[in-house]
Amino acid sequence: MDLHGGNIYKLKREKGIEVLDYSSNINPLGVPESFKDAVIKNFDSLERYPDIDYTELRQAIAKYNDCSIENIVVGNGATEVLFLYMKAIAAKKVLIIAPTFAEYERAAKSAGRDVKFFPLSKDFSLNENLLLDFITDEEVVVICNPNNPTGKFQKLEKIEKIANALEKKGKKLFIDEAFVEFVDGWEEKTAALLKHKNIFILRALTKFFALPGVRLGYGITLDLELLEKIKEIREPWSVNGVAEIAGKTMLLDKKYIRETEEWIKEEKIWFYQELLKLDKVEVSPTETNFILVKLLEDNAKSFRKKMIEAGVLVRDASNFMFLDESYIRLAIKDRDKNQKVLDALKKVMEA
Amino acid sequence: MDLHGGNIYKLKREKGIEVLDYSSNINPLGVPESFKDAVIKNFDSLERYPDIDYTELRQAIAKYNDCSIENIVVGNGATEVLFLYMKAIAAKKVLIIAPTFAEYERAAKSAGRDVKFFPLSKDFSLNENLLLDFITDEEVVVICNPNNPTGKFQKLEKIEKIANALEKKGKKLFIDEAFVEFVDGWEEKTAALLKHKNIFILRALTKFFALPGVRLGYGITLDLELLEKIKEIREPWSVNGVAEIAGKTMLLDKKYIRETEEWIKEEKIWFYQELLKLDKVEVSPTETNFILVKLLEDNAKSFRKKMIEAGVLVRDASNFMFLDESYIRLAIKDRDKNQKVLDALKKVMEA
After folding, report:
1. Which of A179, A206, B91, B347 has the greatest CB tally within 10 Å of its CB?
2. Strand, helix or coil at A54?
3. Closest chain A residue by Cα to residue B80
4. pLDDT at residue A70 above 70?
5. ipTM score here?
6. What would the CATH number be for the domain defined by A6-30+255-350?
7. Which among B6, B43, B76 is the nearest to A52, CB-wise?
């Protein structure tokens, strides 16, 4: 399991070390002020159970995505939506495009599905013709877009081609867009623009808005029968009242959204170009807020340890399917922190 | 499914009616100030994922219950802990003592268990000898204590006798103590004092502290293998960061706890005695913060409608197993509100 920032607690607890957490891909602009204000104003709403239908919350999400409320399902983080999807589908076999986030496999297996992997090309690009030829009896294809940990984003035309081909065969496409809002001009590139009933899009509301602690994810699909099935099997009140407040507030926070878009646009290029200047690494181009880095003269496990001593926690990416021991993943944060991480990388590499 | 306060949203949405919610059993003292202060101070903690092990939260809960951290499991509301328990146990059949909260059945069935019910006596007392004779191949017995919706509380000696008998046969006892802290002197009466490995105690942290919107429940058990199994199957980060803050703060709020204990001790007796004065009802004695009422000249469905028109939402209790159409359940709140509900009851009954 990808422990994200979980590791910082263990480090602090067991070793008393406070580090700059570059293993977790969270917006460095931090908790939106609009969210704080809304919580303070609505503390008393927490003394009621949440609306079991989450009507207002789903309305806010539908408006943000320019779709209908009946196509939205919310969950306790994207994690719950993913697990519900895997339980609700009628499928024996799931095909996951990898390397990618490990929870798809865990969710599919915990729902009793068999899992197979389709490997990305050596440069982590996706050859959709090879993919479509590869598929046999798998009923669902899972793609993370932009992909964690590679940072690559598949164009809408390619996603549409895959969705079309799968639709003809009665198969489904699950697209995790947890990081899509960090992609430049994402509104014109999201699969939510497609009108395929076999598509299910997963979103994590709280990455872009720096609120992973609040736990709010959602899914978008035109497949109403699937949503009905999810409704049947889900546990009641799984989305908490603070997440309700967050969703109803922060999607309207245009200032925060604009500032985030400006930050990521600039820093993604700057950090990538600075990393390119380092000798002992190969850097994958990214379209989102993290970067996959291949170490040419060290292995991820030992490098991670050295980086902790230099005050930075990086993600050892060697346990992603199809990645070897040379890969680490770095978050992208603000200029000040990115500079500190560059300094630490140089220090460790030159030691 | 028991919709609790969920109905108030539907009433407001569909009919524009705002009512006094007596269907939901929440502490009327409201959201603790200590919780509000802690959230405001710790907003920034929400920009990190929660600690995946919830170490500090579990420590706080263990301290509150005078037990070891290794015996505590936390969940996204008591609901998640209940569903995890039902998934984790190795059992084909579950026996539920009824009438009681409907989610036990739903959780057991969703985990593929068969469910059987043991009926309480006519006055809702529990004859433990009859219960023990009744059990055949059921591996788990579920008891809600104090019981929702009857308000009756089983003494520790009786619980111990049942736990002993079940232990000898290799069977388990699941005790929902969601409302136990409303029982006078509960610290000396909780099953957490027993040292039986076959007992699992469910608690809802956010009923006593008026924070159902925050979603925080927990379980206590000495069965470490069961806890290990739960750890394996659970979804990561299901407890949100605000629930973490709540748990770490409010269990230390001695003032709030004392004020709540003083309120419920007084109001439980007063409201019960006032209800006894009404002609057209039979009232069950309660040891917790709600009261089961039998209507002698009306049915619950029609009475509930009339009460909504009088500004009060009561719980139609007729869909609890073994209860007929004459039962409603009332919350106990503060004197002012309880008086308003008494007035409304009289108005409706005399109309």
Report:
1. A206
2. coil
3. A235
4. yes
5. 0.89
6. 3.90.1150.10
7. B6
